[in-house]
Amino acid sequence: MINELNLHNHFCRYDSDKVSNFSVDMLSANYWQAKDAITGSAQGRGTTWFIQYQSNESNSPVQQWVLRHYYRGGLIGKVINDSYFFTGIDHTRAAKEFALLHHLQSLNLPAPLPIAFGVKRSSLFYQADLLSSRIENAQDLVAILSKQTLDGVIWQRIGATIKRFHKHNIYHHDLNAHNILLDDKQQVFIIDFDQGEVKNCSNTAWKQGNIARLKRSFEKENNKLPEFNFTQPNWQQLITGYNK
């Protein structure tokens, strides 16, 4: 049940099965801070907020969400921090990620559930925010490998999970060790599909590009962190799982 909300210069889509009392304010961290509903945060290009939500309906479940604002990267991000040229709602980064997450759910792939997105227009530009579900009891691979090793079965499972996405031609723009999560049952999830897409071409070189980018990510963390439990045999185990 995807509903739309138009309010002055705001346009939003939201899943009314997940949030029946949606308002534009729900896409602002200040709103959740006022409700004392923020349970944590993570720093990346910007701040990602972790939110606990429960509707006013009786017996409604408590939901764990992630709120993320879209920021530019690279040199242009230092000048135009979070504004993008507007060419239509469905071409905004938030709308495309929201739609892609729905597609991933239809394929039963381990990725977050889309909850809502909002686009705020200002003249020829827009800013955007996305609400999605939080993978419960999960940590990213950088956090995990900074504390412990993973056995070969888990490394193969990581590779096999990436292959599941690639079999459906799902391109992840920034596949790295921060965007792969393990929950407390050792199940693998992939997050952050900003600028991701479904590839509809016969050229599959992008798949190896995804894999190469991931390897560089592990090597970068290995060089940066005082303790990071990643070795070449671990990588070979991941590739074995990918190639099965």
UniProtKB/TrEMBL annotation:
Function of the protein: Catalyzes the ATP-dependent phosphorylation of the 3-deoxy-D-manno-octulosonic acid (Kdo) residue in Kdo-lipid IV(A) at the 4-OH position.
Membrane topology qualifier: Peripheral membrane protein
Name of encoding gene: kdkA
Pathway membership, UniProt: Bacterial outer membrane biogenesis; LPS core biosynthesis
Keywords, sorted A to Z: ATP-binding, Cell inner membrane, Cell membrane, Kinase, Lipopolysaccharide biosynthesis, Membrane, Nucleotide-binding, Transferase
Active site: 174
Protein name as annotated: 3-deoxy-D-manno-octulosonic acid kinase
Family the UniProt entry places it in: Belongs to the protein kinase superfamily. KdkA/RfaP family.
Catalytic activity, reaction form: an alpha-Kdo-(2->6)-lipid IVA + ATP = a 4-O-phospho-alpha-Kdo-(2->6)-lipid IVA + ADP + H(+)
GO terms of molecular function: ATP binding; protein kinase activity
PROSITE patterns membership: PROTEIN_KINASE_DOM
Coiled-coil stretches noted in the UniProt entry, renumbered to this chain: none
